[in-house]
Specification:
488 residues, alpha/beta, Rossmann fold, 2 domains, ten-stranded mixed beta sheet, three-stranded parallel beta sheet, 14 helices, disordered N terminus
C-alpha cells in the first residue's frame, strides 16, 4: 500500500563496478555487477585507481555465423573495445567468484541483453540504478557477440544461466528484498520467463509481459522487431499508454501496473528511436566502428543488421536514454520494501487466512525483514463474505450470488452480504491502516491476507471506472498471490 509519483533520481550513492563469473555446467560465464559503495564495507586498496573501462568483446566469427551462417571466419578476427564508463564509478581490482556484495540486503535488478548483444548494452541503466541503491547484475547469455564461453557443445541457455545466477545470490547470502528485470529485444523473452508475479519487468524493443507489473517501451521506427508484433498483446493485456510528450517532460503522475511508452514522433528533427537506440552509446559506437565497412555488403546480401545502419546516422543512444531511464527507474524503484521500515501484516481471523499470514510472517523473520509489532494483526473486517443460506454448501452455488452481483451490488439474495457492504468495510479498513502506518518518518509496507471473494471486491475500490458489480470480471486472484493496491 503506497503512493506513486514521478520521482527524480537522487543518485546520491557512488557506484562500484565488479566483474564476476559464475560456473555454469563447467563454463565460466561472465557477469557484470554494479552496486552502491554503501552496500558493503570495501577497503580503498580493493579499488582500481584507473578510470573504469568495460572490456567489450566483439566476435566476427559469432556475428558471421549468427547472421549469415558463415563458418569460415577465424577466431583471431575478434576484437576488444575499451568502453569508458560515464560518471563517478569505481572498479574492484580482481575478477571475483565470491563478490564483495555478498551477505547484503538489497533490491536486485537483472539485465537481459538481446540477440548478438552484450552484458554492457544496458550499462547506463545499471549505473543509474546502482546510484539509487540497487544491486544490478548483467550476465552474458549464449547469444552474446562476445562469444567468451562454449555454449554450442553444452546445453547452456538463458534459463540455466539466470537460474544459476539466482542460486548463486542465495549462496552468497544476498537478501534480495525485491526483484526486477530489464530485457532488450530477445531479452524481453528472458524477462517474461524469469521470476514470479512479484517481479517488476521492463521490456524494451521486444514483446510485453502478461505479468502484473510491467513497463513496455517500443518505437514505430524499430526495424528489427516491428511494433506490430506487440500491438495486439498491449491491447489485450490492457496496457495503459503514456504519451511521449508526458514522458519527455517527466510529468506523469502515477504509473499503472502495466504501462507502455511508444515512441512515434519526430523530435527536434530526428526520427523516433530505432532498435538499438535504447542501448549504451559506447557499445553501439564500437559496433558501428566495427561494422561500418561491412554494412554496404550486408545491405547488398540482404543480411539483417539489427538497425545498425539506422544508428549509423542517428547516434541517439544518449538522448534516448535521458528520456527512458527516469521512467524505467520510477517503475523499478516503486517496490514495497525499498522505502519502508518493514512489513505490517493484517489478516482475517479465519483459519486458512491466518495460517497463510503466519507462513508469510515467518519467511519475513527468517530473512531479517522487520514485522510490525512483531506479529500478524487479526482483523475481523477481512473475514470472508457471508453467503447466507449458501454458506457451507457446494462452492458452485456461489455463482448464483455472483450472477446477481453483476447487476446489483447492493442485493442480499439468499441472505448474502452485499458486494458493496464488503467493499465498504474493506476499503474503510485500508484507509485507516494507511493513515496509521504512515505516522512515522519511515513508513511500513502493508500486506492484507484475506479470502478470494473479499479481495476480488476490494480491488474494485482501487480501479478507476470499476465498481463492485464487476468484481468477477477482474483477473482472478490465485491462492497466495500478491497484488499491489495503490492509494492516491
Amino acid at each position: 500500500m503506497s503512493t506513486s509519483a514521478n520521482e527524480q533520481s537522487t543518485s546520491t550513492n557512488q557506484v562500484v563496478y565488479e566483474p564476476i563469473t559464475i560456473d555454469v555446467l563447467g563454463e565460466e560465464v561472465p557477469v557484470a555487477a554494479w552496486y552502491p559503495t554503501t552496500l558493503n564495507e570495501v577497503t580503498s586498496n580493493q579499488f582500481s585507481s584507473k578510470k573504469v573501462v568495460y572490456d567489450h568483446r566483439i566476435s566476427v566469427k559469432k556475428i558471421g555465423k549468427s547472421l549469415a551462417g558463415w563458418n569460415f571466419i577465424p577466431e583471431f578476427t575478434t576484437r576488444t573495445f575499451p568502453i569508458s564508463a560515464s560518471g563517478d564509478i569505481m572498479q574492484i581490482n580482481s575478477i571475483a567468484t565470491v563478490p564483495n556484495f555478498a551477505s547484503s540486503t538489497v533490491p536486485v535488478v537483472l539485465l537481459a541483453h538481446g540477440y548478438l548483444g552484450s552484458r554492457f548494452d544496458l550499462s547506463p541503466y545499471a549505473q543509474d540504478l546502482a546510484s539509487n541503491g540497487f544491486l544490478v547484475l548483467s550476465p552474458e547469455y549464449p547469444e552474446s557477440l562476445a562469444d567468451s564461453y562454449d555454449s554450442m557443445t553444452k546445453p547452456i541457455d538463458r534459463t540455466i544461466i539466470t537460474n544459476m545466477l539466482l542460486q548463486n545470490l542465495k549462496q552468497w547470502e544476498v537478501n534480495a528484498v525485491s526483484y526486477s528485470i530489464i530485457g532488450h529485444s530477445l531479452g524481453c523473452g528472458t524477462a517474461i520467463k524469469t521470476g514470479d508475479d512479484s517481479w517488476t519487468r521492463v521490456c524494451i524493443a521486444g514483446f510485453p509481459s502478461s505479468g502484473s507489473k510491467c513497463l513496455f517501451i517500443g518505437s514505430t521506427n524499430d526495424g528489427a522487431v516491428p511494433l506490430s508484433r506487440a500491438a495486439d498483446a498491449l491491447q489485450s493485456l490492457n496496457y495503459n499508454v503514456l504519451s511521449e510528450k508526458v514522458v519527455r517532460m517527466q510529468t506523469w503522475e502515477k504509473l499503472a501496473p502495466r504501462t507502455s511508452l511508444i515512441f512515434n514522433e519526430v523530435y527536434n528533427g530526428s526520427p523516433p528511436p530505432n532498435h538499438i537506440s535504447f542501448l549504451s552509446e559506447g557499445t553501439n559506437a564500437a559496433m558501428i566502428d566495427f561494422l561500418s565497412p561491412l554494412l554496404p555488403l550486408a545491405r547488398y546480401l540482404e543480411i539483417p543488421v539489427l538497425d545498425f545502419d539506422k544508428y549509423q546516422l542517428s547516434r541517439d543512444s544518449d538522448v534516448t536514454g535521458e528520456v527512458v531511464r527516469p521512467l524505467e527507474r520510477n517503475t523499478i524503484r516503486h517496490r514495497p520494501f525499498m522505502v519502508f521500515k518493514g512489513v505490517a501484516i493484517f489478516s482475517s481471523d479465519f483459519t486458512r487466512a491466518r495460517e497463510t499470514a503466519e507462513i508469510f510472517a515467518n519467511e519475513l523473520r527468517k530473512n531479517g525483514i522487520p514485522l510490525y509489532n512483531d506479529e500478524v494483526t487479526l482483523e475481523s473486517r477481512l473475514r470472508e463474505r457471508y453467503f447466507g443460506e449458501l454458506n457451507g454448501g457446494p462452492d458452485d452455488r456461489y455463482q448464483d450470488v455472483w450472477d446477481v452481483d453483476c447487476t446489483d451490488a447492493n442485493h442480499n439474495k439468499y441472505g448474502a452480504e452485499s458486494a458493496n457492504s464488503v467493499l465498504e468495510r474493506t476499503t474503510k479498513l485500508i484507509c485507516e491502516l494507511d493513515d496509521m502506518l504512515q505516522q512515522s518518518e519511515k513508513k511500513w509496507a502493508c500486506v492484507v491476507v484475506a479470502h478470494g471473494d473479499v479481495l476480488q471486491i476490494l480491488q474494485t475500490g482501487f480501479l478507476k471506472h470499476v465498481d463492485a458489480r464487476r468484481h468477477r470480471s477482474l483477473e482472478h486472484l490465485e491462492t497466495a498471490t500478491i497484488r499491489e493496491l495503490l492509494i492516491d
